[in-house]
Recover the amino acids of this structure.
């Protein structure tokens, strides 16, 4: 375990970009915050780009809430927890709608074009709702921050999506969509027919198009044509940037950290994700963080102790604590044994998952674990404890 | 409105809170009451089959228990069914939808996949047999997680917002009407008694109401630790831990494990209290199950626990959850 922590520290120290990935509810946001905090303590200038931090997490870092632009997070408070922060920590929350509007501001061809896009009904829906656009906006923002600002490290907390690969695939898919022949056929009808015309229906009259319009309605296709025409004018060089994002993420400055919980179903998803990242995306997963691992308090042999022996020990404690009736003592002993057995089941399950994970990934990939704590970790103390679990004391 | 009268029942909530488990258990409780029930997963890695010990659930409806049927809807299969319904003839369907340009076009229409899956769910929720009776007494949908779930449920209103005719419009309008009818549709949010899931649940309830005019029917708190010990016992345990010398072998691990549970119970009660204070809806509690993998016995037990609370047989409180 110590070797894993060392390797994990080395991994983070050697990268400019760390992407935390995994399915929803596994502690990605906290993990991202802790990785960033650690690197900042070590002396680097770090930005953590997060999606939706718990208010308490932001508060515990000494800021009321995070904004859509980087904000300095005071580190002095960590001195009380025995840390000597040497670098800088910056935090930023990604607002998807704002990020996408920001792209339009930045890349639209003219003011008129900008207004047309922002007011388009399809855009309004598209910019907040379409699966993949959030991920695209995040990727674009990441590229911008990486090339234009001077952070030593950027830690990215990916959007909580069931299809976590969207984050990587979205840029290219959007580029594909805009350059897609079929779509061009909607907004540049003369491409196929050789005739000029505005909408689809001035051009095509085949039964295929008729059938399609029966399905979607002509109004929808016309709206879509307007949207695509505006949008495509904005995305000159769209593919260039999509490629730059990919290069950045696939290069040796970046690493992916898969965050998971030890539940078998969640581990299944993490492993699926790991495999997809490697085979389909050719990006390197540099490490695993397994959160909320149940500790084991009582060894298996002790669980079978006879009730009377537990009762005797309870009795020995009654002198300093307070006398119990025979009945309460028995009930308490039974509960203690049942409780220990229940948590033993969970500890065993988690240990099994960790073993399985270790077998499925190469030895060279460090796998660090964070115990399931009795308290919320949204406090300085909590963050320090997670930091210790991941990076060592 | 209780959670047993509607025909169309959806479950959403933050990722990782156990939506599939709760959807499956609820569907099982309906089937056990004698209702012919269809449980729908939407284009996900199938988990339902592992709960019911059936072979894997794909895009064809299969029976997984008495009265209980399941399907894992994929957009492609839904498109084919839907396209066939409109175009009537398979040959024309093939010519249109399997046309390379058209199919590539369809794949890039924003939101079409969600509309197709929602449309399929709508179809079954309103499907009638030749004698005029409903084919399904209950259609239970394991809907996407919070963020995506909002987009998913918003699709019909977005479509009716910018087009006003055609099949797609009519379909969207019908779905929208069904979703907004609290007598026919129950929209439930699953949560864990923890900070982020509770935040997201409250946020989603508000957004559903404000943006789509959809009322939440109930909230289900999943994974609630049964306290096991009484408060007096917890107090005694804490004092005992203080009293035990660090090197003592007396009950050491047993007391630590008990104290851990006590602290988690306190923490969860804080969040449950918040839910109770801020939510004016039926709130159901599903206890944490200390098992190594969710299999049929767990689903079966949760089905009974939910049924007892929904029918009013059992007062739904966190304490009674044990």
């Amino acid at each position: 375990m110590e070797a894993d922590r060392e390797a994990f520290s080395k991994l983070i120290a050697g990268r400019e970009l760390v992407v935390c990935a995994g399915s929803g509810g596994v502690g990605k946001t906290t993990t991202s915050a802790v990785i960033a905090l650690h690197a900042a303590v070590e002396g680097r200038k770090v930005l953590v780009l997060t999606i939706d931090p718990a208010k308490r997490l932001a508060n515990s870092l000494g800021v009321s809430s995070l904004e859509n632009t980087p904000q300095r997070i005071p580190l002095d408070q960590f001195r009380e927890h025995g840390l000597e922060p040497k670098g800088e920590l910056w935090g930023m929350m990604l607002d998807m709608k704002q990020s996408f509007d920001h792209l339009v501001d930045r890349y639209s061809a003219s003011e008129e074009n900008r207004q047309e896009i922002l007011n388009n009904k399809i855009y309004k829906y598209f910019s907040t709702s379409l699966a993949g656009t959030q991920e695209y906006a995040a990727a674009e923002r990441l590229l911008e921050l990486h090339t234009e600002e001077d952070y030593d490290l950027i830690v990215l907390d990916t959007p909580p999506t069931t299809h976590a690969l969207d984050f990587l695939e979205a840029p290219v898919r959007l580029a594909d969509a805009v350059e897609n022949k079929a779509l061009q056929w909607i907004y540049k009808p003369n491409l196929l027919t050789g005739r000029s015309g505005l909408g689809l229906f001035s051009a095509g009259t085949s039964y295929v198009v008729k059938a399609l319009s029966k399905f979607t309605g002509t109004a929808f296709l016309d709206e879509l044509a307007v949207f695509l025409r505006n949008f495509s004018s904005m995305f000159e060089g769209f593919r260039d940037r999509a490629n730059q994002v990919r290069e950045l993420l696939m290069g040796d400055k970046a690493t992916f950290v898969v965050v998971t919980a030890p539940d078998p179903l969640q581990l299944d998803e993490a492993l699926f994700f790991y495999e997809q990242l490697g085979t389909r995306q050719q990006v390197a997963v540099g490490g695993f963080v397994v959160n909320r691992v149940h500790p084991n308090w009582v060894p298996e042999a002790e669980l079978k102790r006879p009730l009377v022996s537990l009762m005797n020990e309870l009795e020995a404690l009654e002198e300093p604590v307070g006398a119990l009736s025979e009945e309460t003592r028995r009930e308490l002993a039974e509960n203690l044994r049942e409780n220990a057995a229940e948590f033993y089941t969970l500890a065993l399950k988690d240990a099994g998952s960790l073993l399985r994970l270790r077998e499925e990934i190469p030895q060279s990939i460090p796998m660090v674990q964070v115990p399931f704590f009795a308290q919320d970790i949204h406090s300085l103390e909590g963050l320090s404890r997670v930091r210790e679990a991941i990076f060592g004391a | 409105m209780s959670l047993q009268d509607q025909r169309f029942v959806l479950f959403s909530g933050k990722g990782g809170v156990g939506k599939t488990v709760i959807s499956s258990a609820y569907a099982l409780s309906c089937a056990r009451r004698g209702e012919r029930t269809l449980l729908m997963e939407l284009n996900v890695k199938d988990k339902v089959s592992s709960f019911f010990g059936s072979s894997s659930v794909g895009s064809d409806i299969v029976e997984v228990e008495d009265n209980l049927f399941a399907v894992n809807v994929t957009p492609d299969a839904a498109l084919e069914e839907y396209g066939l319904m409109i175009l009537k003839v398979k040959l024309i369907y093939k010519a249109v939808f399997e046309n390379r340009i058209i199919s590539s076009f369809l794949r890039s229409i924003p939101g079409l996949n969600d509309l197709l899956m929602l449309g399929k769910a709508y179809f079954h929720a309103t499907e009638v047999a030749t004698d005029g009776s409903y084919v399904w007494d209950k259609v239970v949908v394991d809907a996407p997680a919070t963020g995506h779930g909002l987009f998913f449920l918003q699709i019909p209103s977005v479509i009716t917002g910018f087009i006003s005719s055609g099949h797609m419009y009519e379909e969207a309008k019908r779905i929208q009407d069904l979703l907004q009818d609290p007598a026919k549709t129950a929209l439930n949010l699953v949560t864990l008694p923890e900070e982020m899931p509770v935040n997201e649940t409250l946020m989603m309830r508000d957004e559903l109401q404000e943006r789509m005019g959809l009322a939440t029917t109930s909230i289900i708190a999943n994974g609630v630790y049964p306290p096991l010990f009484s408060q007096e016992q917890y107090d005694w345990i804490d004092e005992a831990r203080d009293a035990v010398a660090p090197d003592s072998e007396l009950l050491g691990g047993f007391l630590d494990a008990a104290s851990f549970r006590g602290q988690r119970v306190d923490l969860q009660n804080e969040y449950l209290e918040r839910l109770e204070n801020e939510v004016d809806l039926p709130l159901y509690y599903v206890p944490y199950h200390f098992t190594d993998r969710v299999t049929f016995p767990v689903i079966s037990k949760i089905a009974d626990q939910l049924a007892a609370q929904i029918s009013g047989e059992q007062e739904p409180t966190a304490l009674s959850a044990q």
